[in-house]
């Protein structure tokens, strides 16, 4: 698995970034190998977002990015700057998701 992380800093309106991201996300959602994605906004700096996308492998990610429809589509770079990273998972975990046990605790 590879994880794409892009720190996005606004240079234009937030609403425009979110509109463009939604269009890109609609395209990416149909691409083979995409596991999940999120656009999150910093709670300490409202001009900063993070795009986090998990892909099955590097090949799937590269294939999606080189699709002609993606290459010709609108870009969030019109209203932001990005600091892009393709990462490998070093460690992962999940919280207690047992139904009826908010916050976990002893079993």
From TrEMBL:
Gene3D superfamilies (alphabetical): 3.30.70.100
Domain of life, per lineage: Bacteria
Keyword Oxidoreductase recorded: yes
GO MF annotations, alphabetized: monooxygenase activity
EC number: 1.14.-.-
Keyword annotations: Monooxygenase, Oxidoreductase
One Pfam family hit: ABM
Domain ABM as annotated: residue spans: 2-72
Protein name: Antibiotic biosynthesis monooxygenase family protein
Enzyme class: oxidoreductase
